[in-house]
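[step 3/7] fold_predict: job queued, chain A
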Amino acid sequence: MTDTILVVDDDLGIQKQLKWSLTDYNVVFADDHTSAIAQLRRFEPKVVTLDLGLPPDPANASEGLRILHDIIALAPRTKVIVVTGNNDKQHALKAIDFGAYDFYQKPIDSDTIKLLVHRALNLSKLEHENSILARTRSGMSRIVGNSEAIQKVVRRAEKIANTDISTLLLGESGTGKEVFARSIHEHSPRKDKPFVAINCASIPENLLGSELFGYEKGAFTGANKTTIGKIETAQGGTLFLDEIGDMPIGLQAKMLRFLQERVIERVGGRNEIPVDIRVICATHRDLQAMVAQETFREDLYYRVGEMPIMIPPLRERDQDIILLARTFLNIYREEFKAKAKSFSETAVNAMLAHKWPGNIREMQNKLKSAVIMAEGTVIQPDDLGLMPVDAHDEPETLNLREVREIAESRAIRRAYQKADKNMSKTAELLGVTRPTLYSLIDKYHMEDIKNSD
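[step 4/7] structure written:
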């Protein structure tokens, strides 16, 4: 079925030009607020092109912005591309703040407008598919990803969720092992009981035993009362032992007995306490190599690893990188009440090219920073702390003036960082005077640099 594009413009010449440019789509027209809302309700277009300079107040774009507001209110997933006059960038940026997807300045260029519409449609379809997936997927809803690599792991986790088999989650740091452990717990018969997590690497060796098994009053100096450990706390539920590869060799024998007998003795105690819990372990270490080096007990390895699951690193999940980035963007935008709502094409390419050594944890950190630091609604590679894939990549726009603006903005930012945020040195690196630099900063609305001076 052909996608419908709604063109809101009172200029018959522009209407004809857009109809010729968008021959691959079903193009419908409106020329004022009433007809625009009527066409929106009738055809439910995924993409709308909207001329901001509509009568009765074309100079201030009040009618165009009113139509934009009502379109977003009625159909918030609609991608609105606002079309403005050649010298009306201020209203275009205001429209982006109001929720427009993108803007385009006249005169109309057929190839550019086709590219903008095509990208908007692709994004709309992707969001629609993801919403359907989220509604229909009955399994691990915590796990975000459509790639075959992660879906294979999800299917494996779903199969074991209803059992009490000991599970060993393997993978690099930051791949989401605790998220998987929680998902397995939430889809198990134990979901209404506690999920207790403990990181074996974060607790000193002399305290880990009492932290896990608890202790009796008087067991050691400072033990003023009987205290139950993490294992007892998880009674009926799930115990997640993160970084089990860092468990001291002396404590491993006690852990093995617990896993075999399902009983524990508190530190300083003599009574056996039965425990009914599920155990999920995780590590980024190579336990088989540790077994060979005799730094990890072989019998414990086979006990905790009844069902090993290898979680792939983010670099092997190409299809999921942008999906995860958009998921985190939406979360952090709400959390920090920020303006950022999308990524530039160069930011997308930079994320796809990055190797993500810190995996999902690294992405979360970069997205938090980017959402806070982004100047407008579109996140750039600089906001993410990433370099563009290739400085000679084709820019997003074909308009030479905008290409120059993008290049100058990037050069100013790089010089500013290289000069340790010293304005005189920045101007010197750029080969301009300080007044010219300040003028450019004002021109490109670089408020973060302006306010930090």
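[step 5/7] annotate
The first strand starts at residue 4 and ends at 8.
The two ends are 55 Å apart (CA to CA).
exit 0
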